[in-house]
Amino acid sequence: MSFLKNIFKIRNWKKSDIDYNKLPAHIAIIMDGNGRWAKKRALPRSVGHREGAKTLKEITTFCGEIGIKYLTVYAFSTENWKRPKSEVDALMNLLLDYLKNAETHIGGKSVRIQVIGDVSVFDDKIKKEIDRVTKLTSKNTGLILNIALNYGSRAEIVHAAKKIAKEVSEGKLKVDDIDEKVLNDGLYTAMIPDPDLLIRPGGEKRLSNFLLWQSAYTEFWYTDVLWPDFKKEHILDAIFEYQKRNRRFGGI
Ligand code: FPP
Predict the structure, then answer these.
(1) What CATH number is given to the structural domain containing 120?
(2) Which DSSP symbol is given to 72?
């Protein structure tokens, strides 16, 4: 992977420092710090989000290039509606723009885009684009990018619980047959393996209602770097650290 040479130079790493046979299959990212990035430059928060969208495209391409199979990103939470209308509108416009131009940033047609969350609340233009892009990329065989939109983990678990309760009340499922798999199958992430590595830029050290169920055994990696400043080398920093950890999944 000759394109990695420069990053290895920046970090003073040897080729053997990253083991490409032991990459995390699934990386999840809380894309935090856009607002602070803009504030530092006396710019509107929306500019920070725009830069954050550029970072998302670069990191998606890079993850695909190095062989990550799944990337799940927190783009809009169920709590983000509490932000000023102007900021919500700016985020919706960015999302629409991102989806409309998906063809230009799906990594040589290899990236498959999927959405997790309750998208029923979005306006028709966005819903139409989500539909178009998920269908357009559905046969792509490279990285699977899951974009969390109007996503909240607690809401997701409630949604799964209601689905199960309905099946029980209709006699399609017995209470005794409810297990972790049944609950997992009711989540938006049912078809996606649990994340191996969760990255949070922006300095905060919390989950913020992201993938609560799915991250039971996920390795966390934090950095103070703000999302718009997040670069390929930071992904490799996280993978480097991840590969030094001893994952025991409750065993010894
Ligand atoms: C959190 O940073 C970020 C968000 C609420 C939005 C994330 C959106 C993007 C990265 C770009 C748009 C995404 C797509 C798919 C087009 P913050 O605003 O809370 O930052 P702060 O903590 O510094 O205020």
Answers:
(1) 3.40.1180.10
(2) E
Bridge partners of residue 73, in order along the sequence: 29, 147
Whether 80 is a known active-site residue: answer yes
As for how many domains the chain has, the answer is: 1
Q: What global pTM score does this model have?
A: 0.95
In a domain, 140, yes or no: yes
Residue 173, domain member (yes or no): no
Asked if residue 239 belongs to a domain, the reply is yes
Q: Where are the beta strands (DSSP E) in the chain?
A: 26-30, 70-77, 112-116, 144-151, 197-200, 219-222
Q: Annotate 150-183 with DSSP letters as a single string.
A: EE-HHHHHHHHHHHHHHHHHTTSS-GGG--HHHH
pLDDT digits (tens, 9 = 90+) for 185-235: 999 999 999 999 999 999 999 999 999 999 999 999 999 999 999 999 999
Q: Is 12 a catalytic residue?
A: no
Could you tell me the distance, in angstroms and rounded to a whole number, from the CA of residue 53 to the centre of ligand 1? Answer: 8
Its domain, for residue 35, covers 22-152+194-244
* DSSP E strand stretches across 33-119: 70-77, 112-116
